[in-house]
Amino acid sequence: MMKREWQHECNHYLSEYKQETFNANKKQLEAPIDAFPEKYNLVIPGSACPKCKANIKPIHNLPILGWLMLRGKCASCSNPISARYPIFELITGLLVAFLAWHFGPTIEFAMTSILTFCLVALTGIDLDEMLLPDQITLPLLWLGLIINLNDTFASTSDALIGAAAGYMSLWCIFWAFKLLTGKDGMGYGDFKLLAVFGAWFGWQVLPLVILLSSLVGAVVGVTLIVFKKLNQGNPIPFGPYIAAAGWIAMIWGENITNWYLSTL
Prior knowledge:
Plays an essential role in type IV pili and type II pseudopili formation by proteolytically removing the leader sequence from substrate proteins and subsequently monomethylating the alpha-amino group of the newly exposed N-terminal phenylalanine. By secondary structure, this protein is mostly helical. Helices cover 62% and strands 0% of the residues.
């Protein structure tokens, strides 16, 4: 949906300037060609096979069960359906079930479930597109500040400081790295995602989130290089590691911090 929205905006913008030259050869700037349905959202058009375009029955859209009933293939053309669908559905279900057990029927459970849904979505998008869209991160940031007006997870002052510190900490690292190497070390979406955790749980969780995400990211990156799944110097998405570290800090952050301090 976001890709189509951006493409539509680009088409509209470029169409206004298509008479301008694109390069030294005076090549005419043309808007990209893309066909957009009049409506495109979570409801319209309905779910369909990307290969044969056959509509997917509602019963086959049931999380996990639909994929199992179809045996991982389209009912119309037998095109394979990625196992990623049931895997993400299962992970999300298990995470929310754990939150229900951990928090019980409370406002904390409701809010952390929303956060979890968004983190799963951000993880999938960043893995695919190397992008953490503002359409998800910014509402999460504001929601965290709002729910902490009543000190739900952190005091209002800690949440405000956490949001600013989360963004500025990675922003400073980004520019220090860029000045030293001339390269971008991470994307701005990473700044905003760390700011989300600062807004939700206060500035106190930020060192733990940064430490855990950096440690896991380094281990995964080195492993991929060793097994030649990633060329040295190629970028890897950092958002999934921040999301995982933030979720862990949300549940066990205080215990981990106390354990660490007790070992000093």
